Structures are given as C-alpha cells and as structure tokens.
C-alpha cells in the first residue's frame, strides 16, 4: 500500500496544510524557534556524550 513512502505531491499537500493551519506570517518564527530548539538539543546531547566518555568505567558486578 505505501510502497513509495513520501512522494513529491505528498510534501506539497503537507506544505499547503501547514500554511493553512499556521498562516504564512507565523511560519518564519516557528521555523526559527524549531531550529534554535534543535541546536540546543544537539549541543546538550553532545555534552552528555562527552561527560559519559570522561567518567571512569566501573564494573558493577565486581
């Protein structure tokens, strides 16, 4: 049934629905806020990986 996944016309319909729901005036602000949130999430995940790498590994079974 969903052999091809997202076709170009699916994305077009999705874009039209998003513009209709949020309006064209709010889309740039929403995209900017989403980008900022993604950058914060990415930097926090990187910081967590770095702190996990710096922790000394101990075997809890000893």
* Rg estimate, integer Å: 21 Å
First-residue to last-residue Cα separation: 53 Å
Question: H/E element string?
Answer: HH
Query: Number of DSSP helices?
Result: 2
Mean pLDDT: 83
Percent of residues in helices: 55-70%
Helix and strand content put the structural class at mainly alpha
Subcellular location: Cell membrane
Function: Part of the twin-arginine translocation (Tat) system that transports large folded proteins containing a characteristic twin-arginine motif in their signal peptide across membranes. TatA could form the protein-conducting channel of the Tat system.
GO cellular component, one term: TAT protein transport complex
GO molecular function: protein transmembrane transporter activity
